[in-house]
Amino acid sequence: MNKVAKIEPKVEAEPSTGLALLREPFPPNQISKLPKPTKHQTEEVRKDFKKGVRCKVCGGWHHPNVVHLDYVGHAALTDRLLDCDEMWNWEPIATTEDATPKLDANGGMWIKLTICDVTRMGYGHADGKNGGDAIKEVIGDALRNAAMRFGAALDLWHKGDLHIADDADETTSESEPDGDGTPDKDAADIAASSLKAAETLDQLKAIWTDLPKPVQHSPVAIKAKDDRKAELNETTTDTPQDVGEKIDDEIPY
Fold this sequence. Notes:
Elements: H1 18-22, E1 31-36, H2 39-47, E2 53-54, E3 61-62, E4 67-72, H3 74-84, E5 89-92, E6 109-115, E7 118-124, H4 132-148, H5 154-157, H6 185-196, H7 201-210, H8 213-216, H9 219-234
Antiparallel strand pairs: 1-4, 2-3, 5-6, 6-7
Helix pairs in contact: 6-9
């Protein structure tokens, strides 16, 4: 008599809760796009409004060749915090005489964020803006900064690969090349235009770092980066920099 194969029941992983849930990747519908124009691109559109376009990516009006950053907005982060701990709370490090949160000399604010009885600090800044909307921006920026200390949206904050896959055959991420391994020609051309418009080595480095990996491997983008770097090195007394070198993580607003 043939033995009947025993079928093991499939065990589904328990859903993450608490602080572990905070480290779970955000779904695509909760990730927003932030345009990051260079100073030259901003001034060009400011001088001539028609030089801008209604962006199909973020919905804003800006230079057609800007680079976009992925970020998690205030509402999406608040939703995740509530899922982790309904009693989460934040408070400013310092307050004024009338008990309102106190801003530092740079217009920023330090806060303490408490989730699941664990408290960590964060810092928010409105980047020179004024008024009530600036205060809300400071709070949202501080919450994202503090939540990052708990692991929230680390894959968006970090420009490189935080974890290398153990299995080389594992499914590649969306940032890797598809098909024949070459990036989209339009994306490479747009990146090249942005690189050529960089006014400083720091701007060039920022634009290059924000490009998707397939575009960074494009000969068009590489040539534009190297050519512009050579031009800027010729016109500056600073020590030449390697645009491709590792730089500190930048917080996307």
